[in-house]
């Protein structure tokens, strides 16, 4: 039987949830901002977590089941084989990114990113006391290799260390970097001795065409931070992994000594069960998302032809170019106050996010239609 995790839940059922998506705004606001899915839970996760609760199995995590299961998943979905001994468990991806940056650079060193990009990337660089250098994506949303080379050259001058925070696939544009682009990045990083830290939290959502950065030649010095949380909707059950390239094990040792950054035991149980037994559920999510993208395209063509959308398939997020609507740098503000629909704000993704808003399309067709209808209606209220 095929599963359709993103079908059938009503607004009333969803409003019983108490996570940030359903509590950040009053009930008359339709939330489409944060990256949570309006999905039925993964049956295998419900079973595994319920069993742990019944057994009182609520202590500290042990063992390497999460890394092993992620390894099996990577091999099956992407043909990427790696030794689970090259991974350490960590509480969440953002913590993993911070620790990875601290392991491969020193205070004041350059860390490069490519905006528009997931807002906490900026915070990670600032909080770790590194120097942020932005090499924005090209106008068609690809990595700007010439700008990256210039930034890598400048950042490693005088023998300093430098790193690049890669978002693979890219949030918010949903662009899936190609194997060729990643190979070109690896070549530049190798040439300048820049350490790449790849955030791959959205990767399991991609139906085809995803390339794990560590599966590209010349990435032995890189680190990947990943999790099953985004694809299986498990952000509330915290767990993630830092995986080291074959020459990056010393950085991994630094990270694994971090007291207090361990995942939750229930998180590990949940993520491991999802990766082991949630394959049909994930296939169903991928099918539902593909249909939702077609629906969104139709809705935009009909209701909002002035809004641009690249249609990326790397996440369940749609990066909407609202610059022709004449709503200024933060169109999401008008959508919220006049339309009662909450999108993620473009400027939160860096200066290149001005005039954009990010819509979460991991919901039912009914609620996706409602979100676009609300955006459309509020355009007349200016
Ligand atoms: C690119 C990216 N990295 C990290 C995260 C957050 O991960 P975590 O909750 O594991 O810190 C998100 C959440 O949406 C994300 O989009």
What do these coordinates show?
- The protein is an alpha/beta fold.
- It is 39% helix and 14% strand.
- The protein contains 13 helices and twelve strands.
- It has helices at residues 11-14, 20-23, 43-55, 65-78, 93-104, 120-127, 145-155, 179-192, 249-256, 265-277, 279-303, 331-339, 365-378; strands at residues 30-32, 87-90, 110-113, 131-134, 162-167, 195-199, 223-226, 240-244, 308-309, 317-321, 341-345, 356-360.
- The strands form two sheets. Strands 2-8-7-6-5-3-4 form a seven-stranded mixed β-sheet, with helices on both faces.
- It is globular, with a radius of gyration of 20 Å.
- The termini are far apart.
- The relative contact order is 0.18.
- Bound molecules: pyridoxal-5'-phosphate.
- Pyridoxal-5'-phosphate binds at residues 35, 92-94, 118, 167, 171, 199, 201, 227, 229, 235, 240.
Can I get a quick summary?
Helix content is 39%, strand content 14%.
Please give a handful of descriptors for the protein shown.
PyrdxlP-dep_Trfase_major; Class-II_PLP-Dep_Aminotrans; 13 helices; binds pyridoxal-5'-phosphate; Aspartate Aminotransferase, domain 1; Aspartate Aminotransferase, domain 2; cysteine-S-conjugate beta-lyase; 382 residues; seven-stranded mixed β-sheet; cysteine-S-conjugate beta-lyase activity; alpha/beta
The Cα radius of gyration reads 20 Å
Number of domain units: 2
Helix fraction, binned, reads 25-40%
Question: Can you give the mean pLDDT?
Answer: 97
Strand content: 5-15%
Q: Might you state the CATH topology name of the largest domain?
A: Aspartate Aminotransferase, domain 2
Structural class from helices and strands? alpha/beta
What is the name of the CATH superfamily of the largest domain?
A: Type I PLP-dependent aspartate aminotransferase-like (Major domain)
Q: Describe the strand arrangement of the main beta sheet, using strand numbers.
A: 2-8-7-6-5-3-4
Report the order of strands and helices: HHEHHEHEHEHEHEEEHHHEEHEEH
Distinct small-molecule ligands in the complex: pyridoxal-5'-phosphate
Q: In the CATH classification, which architecture of the largest domain applies?
A: 3-Layer(aba) Sandwich
